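Please, structure for the following, as tokens.
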Amino acid sequence: MAEKLFSSEIRVMELLWKNGEMSAKEIAAALSESVNWSKTTTYTVIKKCVEKGAVIRTDPGFLCKAAVSKNKVQESEAFELIDRLFGGKPDLLVSALIGSGKIEPDQLKALRSLVKDLEED
């Protein structure tokens, strides 16, 4: 999957990552309840996900399952953000996050531990 997923497509993917295989009808019901989407809107978004290779659809029953992992999409989105806003420099993203003052002390501790572990490898 090389194409970027839009926020509407991420909503479909979140359901599939959480629940595994689901029918389009089940996805539509869940999104109707959570974000008030119509069945037509949901089916259109599912179709876009299939076209992008993010979802595999099988018949009968219009069953859908994620073709890409959540981790893979998060990684792709993170690097796209770093390229677009931080000149391809991950350290500038981390600096912006830490400098914002919005990182909780326990999150900062986890980041320090992650960096330490990476340095030891």
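Helices lie at 7-19, 24-35, 39-51, 70-86, 90-99, 105-120. The beta strands are 22-23, 55-58, 63-66.
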